[in-house]
Structures are given as C-alpha cells and as structure tokens.
C-alpha cells in the first residue's frame, strides 16, 4: 500500500469544542491523585495536639530568653554588686581569722587598750562639752574664752614639750650591760607607752614629742640627735594602772628586753616631773589657715 492509501485509512480526530483547550495528561493525573488524597483524608481525620501542661508553658515562656538591653544592664550591675559583697565578706572573714588565732593574753591586751582609748575619748568629749557650756552660760563670755584659750595653750605646750609637766605616772629604767638594746627597741617601748595613754615622756634628758626620732650612732643611741647612754630612764606621765600592765604583757616590752639580756624596772608614782624642754621652732612654710 502506498502512503496515500494509509493516510486515507486513519481515523479522523475528534472535533474540539470551541474555546476549550485540551487538558494535559499530567494535570489529569494530578487531579486524580488529589481526589484520592482527599478521599483518604476524609477517611482518616488529622489528630489534634495534646494541651500543654503548666510546666511546659512556663518553660516555653522562659526559654529561649528574650532580654532587652535594659535587662542586660541590670543583670550586669547585679553581678558586679554581688561580686563586691563576696569580696568584702571574704576579707572580713580573713581579719576575723587572724583574731581567732591570737593568744588569750593578746586579746585581753587589745580589749584593754580599746577600753582605755574609748575612755580617753569620752573624757575629752565631756571636757569639750563643759567648755562649750561655760562659754554659753558665762556672763562675761570674753573673759571665759580668754581663760579657756590660756588653758588650751598650756595643754598644747605640754604636748609640744615647751613647758614642764607633772602628774601621776611611772618611771621605767632599762639597764643594758651587754649593749643589746638598740634604737628600734627604745622606739618600740615609746610606742607602747603612747598606745597606753602616755601624755608626757622624757628619756634621760631629752623631751619626747610628736616628731622625736631614734638613730644608731657610732657610740650609741641618738634621740633627736642627742646621745643617750644606758641606763635609759623613761619618765612617763599618765595613768599608772594603764602604763605598767602595757609593758608587762606576755611578749611585750619587758620580755623583749629580757631576751636582749637587759632588765626593765617599772615604778609607779603619784608625782612624775617631766622637766626637759624643747625650744619652740618656727615652721618655715606652714602658716595658720586663719591668717
């Protein structure tokens, strides 16, 4: 058969409806599949999620955290504050541990010194209050002010060493036949007496004041540049009940001097005279702020 005969034997294609495009095969397959899925879904309804418990809602609300810039700054400040408090508590605990390891005698001495200082401050406070009261109630305030000024000048003169002083106290005599007592030992003795409330001190013929210094010379100890030789005699004005125990505490001045093969003799007296004087020195640069 020829090609012309075969073409005449082909079946004619169905006529298309006007305005309608043929549907692709894959679209039809998709519609068919979608129909199947819909049918399957209709047969098996989707399961609803179980309700959340209170703990689960709390965890979901807190995590992941949602912090603003202000909250971060506040958290940082609280951290720094807590760190500072921890350091302070740690340092306080360390200082308390040092006191816990101290001997009973040392604790008694510390408490006694604190009590004595507290008493001296209370006495000074009462004295100042009495002076104020006298100034306020005096009929002649100018005369009362002049009286108190002169009295204050006497007190300052005693502290500065420009006037003589007398009163109850002790005499401490240090004998050093072996020459083991040096300047630092005498300085420690002076500091212990000051801590116990000494108000006026004289060592041999040298008046001790606030700027007194001790040095080692080629031929002995020098106090404010003046040579002093043993026996070293301390004339001290103050409360004898405070001064003598401060020297005799365990591990104190007396025991330290005994280790240097020196002896210390303490004698109480109701009248100690401190007669050595210091020449008043005009300061080169310091002036009264009221000028």
Can you tell me about this structure?
The protein has 291 residues and is an alpha+beta fold. The protein is built from nine helices and eight strands. It has a five-stranded antiparallel sheet with strand order 3-2-7-1-8. About 5% of the residues have low confidence.
Q: Quick recap of the structure?
A:
This protein has helices at residues 3-9, 25-43, 54-62, 69-100, 104-137, 141-160, 183-195, 240-248, 253-259; strands spanning 165-175, 200-203, 206-208, 214-217, 220-223, 226-228, 232-237, 263-274. It has 291 residues and is α+β, with helices and mostly antiparallel strands.
Features of the shown structure:
291 residues; alpha+beta; 3-stranded antiparallel sheet
Task: List the SSEs and their pairings.
Elements: H1 3-9, H2 25-43, H3 54-62, H4 69-100, H5 104-137, H6 141-160, E1 165-175, H7 183-195, E2 200-203, E3 206-208, E4 214-217, E5 220-223, E6 226-228, E7 232-237, H8 240-248, H9 253-259, E8 263-274
Antiparallel strand pairs: 1-7, 1-8, 2-3, 2-7, 4-5, 5-6
Helix/strand structural class: alpha+beta
Oligomer: single chain
State which percent range the strand residues make up: 15-25%
Q: Separation of termini?
A: 145 Å
The counted number of beta strands is: 8
Cα-based radius of gyration, to the nearest Å: 50 Å
What is the averaged pLDDT score?
Answer: 77
Shape: elongated
Q: Helical segment tally?
A: 9
